[in-house]
Specification:
The chain is mainly α. It has helices at 2-9, 16-38, 59-72, 78-98, 107-118, 120-138, 145-160, 169-198, 213-227, 229-276. It contains ten helices and no strands. GO terms for molecular function: transmembrane transporter activity.
Length: 277
C-alpha cells in the first residue's frame, strides 16, 4: 500500500494545504516578474526601484516554508529528504562548472531528470534549494536571486508534471524538448525581471513606465531576442544534449534509488503493522 501511495504522489508529496501555499507563492512570484508591464511605478503606495527589489527576498522563505512545514509534520520521509539534499548539492556543484558563461549551466539536466522520476513537488523543492545553494557557494546573492530561485522551481515543477507513461526513446525525446523549453524560459524570465532597470527610456527597446502592456511587451521581446540569444540557446542545447547522452542511465539509477527508498519505508510500515498485531 505504501509503495502504491508513493508512486502515485511522488517520493516527496506535499499536503493539499502546502500545494495551495506553493500556488500562492507562485502567483506572487509571477506578479514580481511581470508587474512593470501593467502596474504603475507607485503601485501599492511603494515606488519600486531596483534597489528596493530586495523586498522580493520574502519570496524565498515563503517558498521554503512549506517544505519545512511538511518536514515538521512528518509528511516527508527522511530518506526522501536525504536524497533531496544530495541531489541539490550535486546540482549546485554542476552549476559552478560553467559559472553561467554564455549560458553553460549543466545543473538543469539533473533537475529535470530528478523531477521526472520523483515528481513535481520534489522538482519544485530541488530547483529552489539547488539555486539557493549555488548562490551561497559563489557569493551570487543579490536582488536577482529570488527570481532565479522561483524560475528554477518552476522548471522542476514542469519536469515533474509530465505524463509518466512514456518510457525509452520517447521519454528521452520528451525530456529533451523540456530541456529546450526550460533553457529558453529561464533566460526569458531573468531578462524580464532585469529589463525595466537595465536601460534608460531613450532606446527603442527600453521599458516605458506607464505605457500599455502591448507596447512594453513588444519592446521587451525585441530586447530579449537582441541580447539574450547568445546565452539562452547554448543553455538549451547543452541541457538537451546532456539528457540525450546521459538521460537513460541516470533515469535508471534514480528509479532504482526510488525503489530502494520505497522498499525501506515499506519494511518500516510492515514492522509497525506486525508490532501492532
Amino acid at each position: 500500500m505504501l509503495s502504491t501511495t508513493l508512486s502515485r504522489r511522488g517520493l516527496l508529496g506535499f499536503s493539499p494545504l502546502a500545494r495551495i501555499g506553493i500556488a500562492l507563492v507562485s502567483l506572487v512570484s509571477l506578479l514580481a516578474f511581470t508587474w512593470p508591464l501593467y502596474l504603475p511605478e507607485s503601485a501599492f503606495g511603494l515606488v519600486m526601484t531596483q534597489d528596493r527589489y530586495w523586498v522580493f527576498f520574502l519570496i524565498i522563505p515563503l517558498a521554503l516554508f512549506f517544505l519545512g512545514l511538511e518536514i515538521n509534520r512528518g509528511k516527508i520521509e527522511m530518506s526522501a529528504l536525504a536524497l533531496l539534499a544530495v541531489l541539490a548539492a550535486l546540482a549546485a556543484a554542476l552549476r559552478q562548472i560553467g559559472a553561467g558563461a554564455v549560458g553553460i549551466e549543466p545543473m538543469w539536466f539533473l533537475v529535470i531528470l530528478a523531477a521526472r522520476v520523483f515528481g513535481a513537488t520534489f522538482g519544485f523543492s530541488l530547483g529552489a534549494i539547488a539555486m539557493a545553494l549555488s548562490a551561497l557557494l559563489t557569493g551570487g546573492i543579490g536582488p536577482w536571486l529570488p527570481f532565479q530561485i522561483m524560475a528554477a522551481s518552476w522548471i522542476g515543477l514542469l519536469a515533474g508534471s509530465l505524463p509518466q507513461r512514456l518510457r525509452g526513446r520517447l521519454e528521452i525525446a520528451m525530456l529533451m524538448v523540456i530541456a529546450l523549453v526550460a533553457g529558453m524560459s529561464f533566460g526569458f524570465l531573468m531578462d524580464l525581471q532585469l529589463w525595466p532597470w537595465l536601460l534608460g527610456t531613450e532606446t527603442a527597446i527600453s521599458f516605458v513606465p506607464g505605457a500599455g502592456v502591448e507596447e512594453n511587451l513588444t519592446r521587451f521581446v525585441r530586447f530579449h531576442f537582441l541580447t539574450a540569444m547568445a546565452w539562452d540557446i547554448p543553455r538549451s542545447i547543452l541541457t538537451a544534449t546532456l539528457i540525450a547522452i546521459t538521460g537513460a542511465p541516470i533515469l535508471n539509477a534514480l528509479r532504482r534509488a526510488q525503489k530502494r527508498v520505497v522498499f525501506l519505508d515499506d519494511l518500516s510500515e510492515r514492522a509497525k503493522a506486525q508490532k501492532a498485531l
